[in-house]
Amino acid sequence: MYKLLLFLKKTDKEDIINIFNEQTVKHLAEVSGNEIKSAEVESNLLMETKYSKYCEVSVSSKDEWDKKMNSRAGKELNKHFINMHQFIDLIFVNYKDER
To answer: Which domains does the chain carry?
Structure first.
């Protein structure tokens, strides 16, 4: 399993929060082919950076993720990430098959 964990940094800018809710989540859904829901980050006391929103995408493997990101929707998502880079943090997690 391969996951993208996406965090929106805490901000008072309502337009950035709206972009995350309306565009970021939409782009992730288009790439993944699944409904994506965002959640409120209630607490992250031990982290220096504070976050307000979170969402994640799961796929079966890194190869599947790479294929999705090479699609038209994936390229649009990359552009979106570039435009939002100062407001988001991305973490990729790879649960490698240990057989």
So the answer is: 2-94 (3.30.70.100)
From CA 1, how far away is CA 27, in angstroms rounded? 20
1, 60 Cβ separation under 8 angstroms: yes
Closest by CA to 27, choosing from 75, 61, 66, is 75
Candidates 46, 35, 47, 37; CA nearest to 9 is 47
pLDDT for 30-73, tens place per residue? 999 999 999 999 999 999 999 999 999 999 999 999 999 999 99
Instruction: Say how far apart CA 73 and CA 5 lie, in whole Å.
Output: 18
C-alpha–C-alpha distance, residues 76 and 29, integer Å: 12
